Amino acid sequence: MFSLPVLIAQFVSSALHLTLSPRPLFETLQNYGHQEFLGPPTQASKSIAIVGGGSGGLAALKTTLDVAAEINEDWEVVLFEQHRGLGGVWLPDPPGHEPQPPELPDSPTYPRLIVNTANPTMTYPHVPFPPGTDLYPGWDVTRQYHVDFATQFDLWPHVRLNHTVVSAQWHGHDGYGDWHVTVHSPPVDGGSEDVVLRRTFDHLVVANGHNHYPHIPEWDGTDDWLAYPRPGLPKRELIHSIYYRDPERYRGQTVVVVGTGASGRDIALQVGTLATVYQVVRGNKTTTPGANVIEKPEIAYFTSDGIVFVDGSVVEGVDTVVLATGYEFRVPFLSAPHASTLVTDPDAEVNSTTAEHLTSNLRYIYPLHQHIFSLAPSVPPTALAFIGLPVLIANCPSDYAQGMFIGHALANASLLPSREEMLQSLLEREEHLREQGWDPYFVGHRLQNDNEAQTYQDNLVAYLKKQGAIPDDGKRYVEPWRRMGREQNFLINRGWKRIKEQGDEARWLNGVRTENQWAALLNKIAEWQSRWEKDHGISEDIVSLREYEW
Ligand SMILES: Cc1cc2nc3c(=O)[nH]c(=O)nc-3n(C[C@H](O)[C@H](O)[C@H](O)COP(=O)(O)OP(=O)(O)OC[C@H]3O[C@@H](n4cnc5c(N)ncnc54)[C@H](O)[C@@H]3O)c2cc1C
Ligand SMILES: *[C@@H]1O[C@H](CO)[C@@H](O)[C@H](O)[C@H]1NC(C)=O
Ligand SMILES: *[C@@H]1O[C@H](CO)[C@@H](O)[C@H](O)[C@H]1NC(C)=O
Ligand SMILES: *[C@@H]1O[C@H](CO)[C@@H](O)[C@H](O)[C@H]1NC(C)=O
Ligand SMILES: *[C@@H]1O[C@H](CO)[C@@H](O)[C@H](O)[C@H]1NC(C)=O
């Protein structure tokens, strides 16, 4: 790692064209014309901007640099991260800053957040967590893993922290052009004005995450319910889980948690011991095993003092409703008013065949090849790549496979099938979903099950092997142990809980260093717990992978 002065030196010597702007940023955006964008300052054969320094952006950075090194090309790869550090969702808001609506937090992370997938299954290939790491570590350990990854692979010189991409606009046509990218960062050298950077890049890799824009359902009556006078009591609250921090805040309250994804389950578990908690459970989903909650069907509407559920039941005296209702897919810097590449419209009527622009209906960005490359007619496919869109997948390994796919396609666009062929296979995926009774525009980037999630990654890498871009080792990308670790996660989780209750975790972790040793540990715990559950006549609870959605 480097010290701050070194960073500033790098920042300056990198000769990115920085301009001290005399005007506020957004005015600048409107006022500066096309011609104000400068080309890359280096002789690099390609310039690539990666937006976002979470799991996805770091995977893209490492893998594209690897490809460049392999083919002996000088690519300029810059990763812009708007926050003060790397790690994405794992980097909490700055200490002491607890944003309230309508201000959005930087991150949904809360102090008691621990991962719900065993750490060996969450890793970039061959980069295990440090020896001694809890099998289910906290957000802080997970963030440090990302920071260490950047250090281990010498990624820092390519990283620009505190740099927000505010607009990226494609100038050109479907054959050739470049991105006009506007970035802003805080003042340097004691100045008071934002630094505005405007320059072009050949390729844009979007890794901005999809746990940042809350999806907030609407019901009749919420305004009256919120305004209902409650002498001597605090105001009622209707908040999204992105604002959830400390369960103590809800002690003694009556709380309704809406949703049974990972966030809803965890919040119900944490608040359930301190408050009276009702949890809204949809369809055949279930609440968290062990949570002290009362299950409810969906909310129908609110009255001034009550919440009415679709079965006609009413709960009165609710203090707080926590909406663990998920997030929307938005990319503001590609969208109006900043740019025109991505149309965001929840009611979009165009489909993958008819869309002239890339479109987000907030659940699905389309048309994309393999959830990655834009197939919109206005931009060449390799100009615009997304990383990290698939949901219900282990992000780091999947991001890494996507990153390899992106890196090689940027090196050689002929690796990709023709746009027509790519569109055809997208339409086939959509049709396949329809045949199974799903609406592909609702399913979006959610993979159907664990098998699809693993196969997706395998296929990306297998394709590169088939094209001769990488050597064929005859193996599938997702290792058998990782597959097992995902499929048996809940069994392993129960086993690990039992090990911790026995105070035995140090013994189990003893000598576990390498990826193979972590893999063996997963197998050992799964077998140990499975045997114990059989001996005790405990039948495994079925928890579908769908519960991983936040
Ligand atoms: C509460 C919660 C718990 C989770 N728990 C788990 C878990 O236990 N296990 C697991 O595998 N996954 C978990 N996840 C999923 C997690 O989001 C992914 O694993 C992964 O970390 C996402 O990485 P990402 O890079 O795609 O997105 P993010 O981590 O969101 O990173 C995106 C980055 O892009 C930056 N950015 C966005 N816009 C701009 C811009 N315009 N300019 C510059 N920078 C920008 C953001 O600041 C951010 O740092 C959890 C998610 C949440 C919300
Ligand atoms: C980023 O901004 C924070 C303040 O928000 C500051 O403390 C930090 O030093 C900055 N980091 C860099 C690398 O500029
Ligand atoms: C829940 O219902 C869906 C379809 O409605 C089905 O695919 C799934 O298997 C069911 N899950 C359980 C746990 O019963
Ligand atoms: C896409 O929309 C067009 C026009 O509405 C329609 O004709 C076509 O059948 C749609 N395609 C699919 C696959 O739904
Ligand atoms: C680019 O990919 C195509 C398709 O796989 C291949 O035929 C061609 O040789 C590749 N070009 C280079 C320079 O590797």
From TrEMBL:
A Pfam family cross-referenced in the UniProt record is FMO-like
Give the signal peptide as a residue range, or say none if absent: 1-17
Checking InterPro entries in the record gives: FAD/NAD-bd_sf, Flavin_mOase-like, FMO-like
Q: What GO molecular function annotations does the UniProt record carry, in alphabetical order?
A: flavin adenine dinucleotide binding; N,N-dimethylaniline monooxygenase activity; NADP binding
Q: Does the keyword Oxidoreductase apply?
A: yes
Q: Keyword Oxidoreductase: yes or no? A: yes
Alphabetic keyword roster: FAD, Flavoprotein, NADP, Oxidoreductase, Signal
Cofactor annotation: FAD
Q: Which family does it belong to?
A: Belongs to the FMO family.
> What is the name of this protein?
FAD/NAD(P)-binding domain-containing protein
